[in-house]
Amino acid sequence: MTAQSKTYDESLARAYEHVRRWLSSIDERPVGPRVTATDLLEDVGGPLPDDGKDPAEVVDELAAKADPGLMAIGSGRFFGWVMGGTLPAGLAADWMVSGWDQNAGMRYSTPATAALEESAARWLLELLHLPSTADVGFVTGATMSNFTCLAAARHAVLATAGWDVERDGLTGAPKVHVLVGAERHDTIDLALRYLGLGQPEPVGSDEQGRIRVDALAEALAAIPQGEPIVLCLQAGNVHSGAFDPFAEAVALAHERGAWVHVDGAFGLWAAASPALSDLVEGLSGADSWTTDAHKTLNVPYDCGLAIVADSVAMRAAMGVHASYLVPDETGPGDPYEKVPELSRRARGVPVWAVLRSLGRQGVTGLVDGLVANAGEIASGLAAIDGVEVLNDVVYTQVCVSFGSDERTREVTARLIADGTTWMSGSRWRGRDVLRISVSNWSTDARDVRLSVDAVRAAAAS
Length: 461
Ligand SMILES: Cc1ncc(COP(=O)(O)O)c(C=O)c1O
Description:
Distance between the termini: 61 Å
CATH superfamily of the largest domain: Type I PLP-dependent aspartate aminotransferase-like (Major domain)
Helix content: 40-55%
Number of helices: 14
CATH topology of the largest domain: Aspartate Aminotransferase, domain 2
Number of strands: 11
Order of helices and strands: HHHHHEHHEHEHEHEEEHHEEHEEH
Bound molecules: pyridoxal-5'-phosphate
């Protein structure tokens, strides 16, 4: 054994023990952190010491110091924002990705990770019933996926209008009209900002946050013929879980030559469940799709997917050429042609591992299980005095009010302080709400019961 591998052994052995301890503590500890980042900074901050420290001891120090500031996102009773946990195969594969330390940009230099990612991409397209010829890029998350897909959209609609945006930039370019639902996720606006496309044009939505087809038809009619149009739809509203009416919206937009993008950060996975097929009817007719693997699929952060039907547009927007790179000519092109980064970790490998470990039926079961738990939570909460469930619970999201905004905020604060479960507050359709997002594979009937009981207690006190 070399001195170097001995050094690794000790640090990794300690990291393994600390992570095991962390994972086994998750069911017992309060879900929320016990300190703020500002508190913790006192402990981990200060000037960088002059002298180094043994790496294994650094691992011990890290584990001890971080512990009070860790959120138990992997708990079956964590329902905050939209954050999934981590399936065992995903966590283990993610560790291997770090251990292998492959720079996953080039097929030629890192064939193992390239092949695993390509295989995962094919499995995904099949599972989600998307065109088998679509290009898939592994990005950090849905924000970067929205950016990547909309960069491809910008290329395509401007090319159709006779403008080469990669060569000539945006100055003097035809205006790109970007239509979005009034309740799109804010990262759509962020992606448009990165792309220099400015503020989008919001289209009215219904009481569940779905884009209204009549309002969309009106908005499209107001755009002069021949002008470039991008339409952003949504699979899974963060508050209601609602899905836009894809079949009608895609048809209307395509009649006008628009590019249709779907932000399905957590909702695209509904396409893997036959029971949810009504929600995703017409979804596959869009031009690009965003999703996260680190949400519904429960792989570790950071892992999003940018899926684009027109691979020419994707590569025109994202491709890079440098003389020292070795382009692959034996397969479907290099990973770096499909994402914003040149160098990156092989974040698609945990996706491969989780898909392999679940199989097709397991993915369907995972999605159906999350939806069933959301339904159980909604009916448990609806039975509590003074609780109003505000959305139609069609997927994984539940939004409730406890009467006045003030009371909803108070109950939310008491619930978080109690620590049995974690649900986050928000504002939706002019009201303060408690949002429940069921995203964790490990949530079971006991977690649902304990969480509903905790809400009942917070509402009673
Ligand atoms: C619909 C939707 N789009 C985009 C995002 C942003 O995802 P990420 O945090 O992975 O960048 C989210 C996050 O919750 C989301 O729910």
